[in-house]
TrEMBL record:
It comes from Jaculus jaculus. This is Palmitoyl thioesterase CPT1C. The gene is Cpt1c. Keywords: Acyltransferase, Cell projection, Endoplasmic reticulum, Fatty acid metabolism, Hydrolase, Lipid metabolism, Membrane, Transferase, Transmembrane, Transmembrane helix. One of its GO terms (molecular function) is palmitoyl-(protein) hydrolase activity. Residues 778-803 are annotated as: Disordered. The chain crosses the membrane at residues 104-126. It is an enzyme of class 3 (hydrolase). It is a multi-pass membrane protein. Pfam families: Carn_acyltransf, CPT_N.
Amino acid sequence: MAEAHQAVNFLSSLSSDGAEVELSSPVLQEIYLSGLRSWKRHLWRFWNDFLAGMFPASPLSWLFLFSAIQLACFLQLDPSLGLVEKIKELLPDWGGQHHRLRGVLAAALFALCLWGALIFTLHVALRLLLSYHGWLLEPHGTMSSPTKTWLALVRIFSGRRPMLFSFQRSLPRQPLPSIQDTVRKYLESVRPVLSDEDFRGTAALALQFLKVQASPLQRYLRLKSWCAANYVTDWWEEFVYLRSRNSLMVNSNYYMMDFLYVTPTPLQAARAGNAVHALLLFRQRLNHQEIPPTLLMGMRPLCSAQYEKIFNTTRVPGVEKDYLRHLQDSRHVAVFHQGRFFRVATHALNGLLSPRSLEQQFQRILDDPSPACPHEEHLAALTAAPRGLWAQVRESVKTQAADALEAVEGAAFFVSLDPEPAGMTREDPATSLDAYAHALLAGRGHDRWFDKSFTLIVFSNGKLGLSVEHSWADCPVSGHMWEFTLATECFQLGYTVDGHCKGHPDPSLPHPQRLQWDLPEKIHSSISLALRGAKTLAGTIDCHVFPFSHFGKSLIKRCHVSSDSFIQMVLQLAHFRDRGKFCLTYESSMTRLFLEGRTETVRSCTREACNFVKAMEDKEKTDLQCLALFREAVDKHQGLLKAAMSGQGVDRHLFALYIVSRFLHMQSPFLTQVHSERWQLSTSQIPVQQMHLFDVHNYPDYVSSGGGFGPADDHGYGVSYIFLGDDMITFHISSKKSSTKTDSHRLGQHIADALLDVASLFQAGQHLKRQFRAVAEEDSGHRHGFPSSKIVGSKAPTTSTDF
């Protein structure tokens, strides 16, 4: 999501006042430290897994093995082939009265060694199996005999009920691609957007790089790939995220929306109570590893490492770089309302507070008439300031208001009770939905604590939203949590007829604790400066959200095309119509097939995509010719996507090579040029991972409407999209109002038109364009797929609708 902005601006994190920052650590020392950090995480996870139950064998399985050996000894059988007796001989001789104890201890040690050997064998076998990626290369909907055999073996070695972190020690490491292949793929990706002269210059730089610098850089990187769990991830987190000195707001955060058409309750405190309780239930399941591991296409487990920092995590600012502070547990949330901060406990003596009790606490905050203290109201604007400024001011805040700062930074997460309503309205659906997106992404600049891993935002009319900081994890992880939260608070926890949380309030609960900030006079000017900067940045963002309801994933499937590739080609066509030229396109893809994998870039603007777009704009080309070029472009995109997922992408390899070159103080004009590129179109699909939690047939409106992020370039667009059920696609578009070249609403109209134009190439979609134009002529006020009336006849478990 928002990673595109960070990725293209990470060079600025290696400069200070125009001068390059020297990475003075020796590269071998950095590689050693990277490996050391990996092994520390490995041992920590091993101990946690041992406490939770070893995978794929629990401690009970050792007890069963020990009992079987003891039974065999009782029956005068020796399954150890004499090893138990040898172990007994090595044990100290404690006298005749302890002879029996020596036998039991020897049997226990043998059972432990055998148990460990079996676990190790299972892990090695599973890691070898998970290193197979042939299934990725097979056509969609088909499965070869080797893949069927592989799948059967994976299921056998995975055990019956794997837990969230069960596969972590069996996942393979991300492979290091050939440097020649990476450079070749890079040159192929930039050819469509460069002139002949510029491409010749880039190719010459690439050739010089391969001759002189590539080999030593690749050797160091190969050494790192052997030492560390992942040769990219730790440097990616440090240099792309934690060393960035820009504001987190818009640049690093992204947002997740509530249900599009309905609000389960209009009571702000009730919605907050159920949502917070649902989030804490997710944390509880996470701590007990009761969340099933994510399986790609229902077959291949993905890395779960990013789940570790969802809760109790804060990004702490530093002068040169930030760091992530993660606590093992936190039993309170920090709440912001009308410029005041509160500490709300989430647990009582008997466990987690009920939703009704939490509602009571939030209502007490809403009813509290006390005013905000001077400068307290705008204090959170500092978290939206450039990181260097906030790092300096934070030291003063920590000195004068240590308890209050710890209550916020040590909270499970941050909650903002927004005094304004939000969401789609009947009177002006388009404008209200755009304002909703803007409120989630930026707010008013001082009402979100952007350092927290995520902020839960509850609006005055009961609408929800999430603002997520990006450094700790990527969108699919927070999206997984958000799906669980929406489904749980609405369908499982539910609300009473009058909109309150179910259950009874607890008058004996102490009131929420009001946090006291004794702010020194010298930071008041810094707060004012941060607030002005935050408001200026928020004011430049142009957000546009529209649900396209004329067709969705079901029609695309009938066309036998990948839904993601379909949308990517639509975006190429829409962007070309908007700007009249092609540009580098950033599409985020995951690399969680590998241990501690995060993301890779799919460069969607290919030669094949450009040929298709040109054909669509050529009136002399027939639909059959355009369709043939479309399929070529889709096939090319699918190949790039699969290569990225299997660790054979371009950008992360080039990024790691560049970091090595900086540690070695080696100037590389080629790598510098690569990382100076601008991505004027950054895109991301938000996956729906848990459709079983939602009943789209009986409750078609109860599906999350996705989320969005800021543009990666001042003259570019950020576009995210989510497939809602089978017949709707929601797009989230952002750009800068300061740019005369972009307009989010204009691009939205081009996307809607391009969707219909591409669908009309297929027989299944030829009627849609005529139908859409007829509807547009009948009701010109509802554009981009907005329904002219609320869907009627759908069952709803709530009493409140928005539209």
